[in-house]
């Protein structure tokens, strides 16, 4: 059960960026601990549609940065 309005009504998305590096078996000599793993970058740029004092997102190792009312998230 959510409390308050849901996210699409609170923010205006401005930019999305996704980059993923995948380790594929058979193409490279990959150590066993790297098989079926990936690393990547996700960046979301958004602007609040209403007066906002704080954002809380349920995700580990997330950093929310702010510059003149425009926020971005690096995961």
From TrEMBL:
InterPro entries, sorted: Aminopeptidase_N-like_N_sf
Protein name listed in UniProt: Uncharacterized protein
Species for this entry: Mesorhabditis spiculigera
